[in-house]
Amino acid sequence: MPHNFHLLILLFLCIGIFCATIFPVLCSPSPPKKENISIWKRFRKFAANFSAGLAKFVVPLIINNRSNKTQSAGVYGTLTCNGSPAEIFLGFESDDLLADGWTAQNGTFVLYGSTKEATKIVPKLNIYHDCNDTKICQRKFSIFVPLHFVNEGKIPSQFYHLGTIELSEKFPHEQRDCLH
């Protein structure tokens, strides 16, 4: 998904609100009733100011990619399967892949990465494993990194510590993944 896709949607929404509220009133074939004139005037003024103000904020963000700032996040911890170190594949992503890699022989891992975004990134760690599993494809679950661990710059100044995670358990929203 493009970096500024959500901003583009917001701009079209503002234009839609403006068109839906202003044009029908201005182009109406019959004049509004006297008791509704002041309400319509105030509403038109509010809608016009709101749309114009929002457009002034959103359009520069869409046009000017320099508004995108480099943000980074990092995570570390240990993964075990039935108490033994687990060597498994990890993916660390936001909208874009930030990093991927494998745990060490002792089950420890450190992953970090950066990307340019106009809004704050929401990184998550995807864990793919076969602990206590004989089915095809791998078990996959994700852990979101708290937003206060998102840093400005290419290298994070603080990392999210997951601690030790035992993979033999079933995790909420766990699914199977063959194509990571």
TrEMBL record:
Q: What's a Pfam family this protein contains?
A: TTR-52
A single Gene Ontology CC annotation of this entry is: extracellular region
Q: Which domain of life is it from?
A: Eukaryota
TM segment ranges: 6-26, 46-63
Q: Show the Gene3D superfamilies listed in the entry.
A: 2.60.40.3330
Per UniProt, the keywords (alphabetical) are:
Membrane, Secreted, Signal, Transmembrane, Transmembrane helix
Q: InterPro entries in the record, alphabetically?
A: Transthyretin-like, Transthyretin-like_sf
Keyword Transmembrane helix listed? The answer is yes
Compartments (UniProt record): Secreted
Family, per the entry?
Belongs to the nematode transthyretin-like family.
**Name of protein:** Transthyretin-like family protein
- Organism the protein comes from: Heterodera schachtii (Sugarbeet cyst nematode worm)
